[in-house]
Structures are given as C-alpha cells and as structure tokens.
C-alpha cells in the first residue's frame, strides 16, 4: 500500500477535503483505492460522517456499492445511527 493510498483514507476519515482533492487531482484512481480491510475512502468518509467528502467522492465516481472485507458497503456504514447527518432532510 502506497503513502498516497494511506493518505487518501486518512483524509477521508479526518474530513480533510482540501488534502483529499489534491490527492485525487494528482491521481484520480485513488478515489477507489482499497486499504488493508478492503475499504475505500468512501467507506471512511461515511464512517466519520464527512458529508462534504462523501459528496465529493461520489461526484468523482467512487464505487458506492463496493463491499469491504466484512461485506459492508459505504451505504451500510452511513445507515448507522451516529451518521444520520449524511441523510438529506425530508419533510414527512
């Protein structure tokens, strides 16, 4: 795993949008880079509730249905109760 791969996952996890943008501009393939657990930056952004990064990654062709080594997709992770901020507000 390269330093860039580790950096993009850390940027996604820590809500560092400007760093993540710079890494993607340098190497667009990093959008779907896998870490040692099979997670993409989108998994980490969803896990940490980084809404702006989730949007950026999806806009840059992140695989939204990619399963990690445990079978979790970013959508599964974003559905956890502590990540409700990722859902758009709807009128009921």
UniProtKB/TrEMBL annotation:
UniProt KW Repeat keyword: yes
Classification via Gene3D superfamilies: Ankyrin repeat-containing domain (1.25.40.20)
InterPro entries: Ank_Repeat/CDKN_Inhibitor, Ankyrin_rpt, Ankyrin_rpt-contain_sf
Keywords: ANK repeat, Repeat
Keyword match Heme: no
Name of this protein: Ankyrin
ANK repeats: 37-69
UniProt superkingdom: Eukaryota
Any Pfam family the entry gives: Ank_2
